[in-house]
Specification:
Strand content: under 5%
Largest sheet: none
Distance between the termini: 38 Å
Radius of gyration: 43 Å
Low-confidence stretches: 209-236
Mean pLDDT: 76
Shape: flat
Length: 479
Amino acid sequence: MNCPKCGYEIGRNRRYCEQCGTDTAVAIRLYRLSNRYYNEGLRRAQVRDLSGAVTMLKRSLECNKRNIQARNLLGLVYHELGEPVAALSEWIISKHFIPENNLADYFIEKIQSNPAKLDAVNQTVKKFNQALAYAKQGSDDLAMLQLRKVISARPGYVRALQLLALLYMKNDEYEKAKRCLLRAQKTDVANTTTLAYLAEIERVLNPDGQKVHTERSIESVSYQPAVSAVSYQEDKPNYIAFITFFAGILIGIAVLYWLIVPTVRSDVKAEYANEERDYGAEIASYTTTISVLEKEKENLSDKLKEAENRIIELRRENEEVSAFDADAYEQVLLLIAEYPQLKERLIKAEEEEDLSDILDDLIAYADRLLENENIALVRSKTAAVYKQIRDEVAEKVKKYGFDYGHDLYGAAKYGEAVNYLLAAYNMGEDSADNLYFLGRSYQKSGDEKNARIYLQMLVNQYPDSERAEMAHQCMDGLD
């Protein structure tokens, strides 16, 4: 975050600017509020509530005009709504704030890299404006003609769909208007204008709030009178029927032999070929399984050798541990066991942004880590755990020790500031700022010897920095 007065880059959770001393509490609150609005706008954009996303992102930019993520997302939402001019405006402003490594460059290039597409966008905007002018003049036919061209070019242009629906409603073409509004709703599901127009259409088409059901008429069945039976006559034998029957059987047998039998044979051959192919696939699968099992056997052999080597190493480590004091090693184990509870308290304090109760315990724990470092590094198992804990604790002590010590220095509590700045230095925080404020804290508290040590260390390590020049001036005062 940058200081709102001088523009100097301020570290996280710092109350005052190091350059001009301005109180940045209000600016920090505005930055956080801007991020909250951005997160809400992103959530709404993901569920296609684009109009709601525009509202949230505009609020985010009102709190922090340099929120580049919110501005780029607002441009994307405008582009999705069919308003490329507004989208380009937001991306150009974003690029003005951050010229390098900005996603706005990609968005602008995607639009400007295709001159034909850019010209089509310009023509679409002009046609929409012309249609709006026709609608204001009462020329509904010309306006609808222009709007159909606009929607054909940009199907997701919400404002064009809403205007066309409004003209349809004016001309009592409510079904067409409803189709336009439903298309607009697919792009922006919670647009208040679209929802208001849909409610009005439902009210007009269904004023009583009930649907009219039509009944299907019952068709009558006509009566068919019975046909009178004819008189019975005995039939004469028909030999032609028997001859035809046997001829049909012979023809059927011939068709079965010449047509069906070859087909059955080909099906049997195909089935045999499929079974042969399946057996081949199974054999290949078994071969692959055998090769995999052989590789697993080799891997298990390698792991067995590694386990044997590990046993030898553990025996050697146990012999080395015997050379140390058992009580001291037990203290190392207890120290490692205390860390999970301390880490849980630290995480809770970071979430609540209040480190006043945990910081002293964290520094004391860091001092104990340094005291027991030689014992902890004897065995590889405890050494690995110790190194991990030491790195995590060192990172927190360097960060919060410097921040808290710097705040105490600003409050003229120099003796207390020394404790936190020195703890950060012991854990590896040897930056120019930490060395400067540590030396100045010693100087302000009357310890000129230590003040000269750390100021001279600053001059030696960072000779070209601004802090080195300030350190020279402070040491001249010590003389």
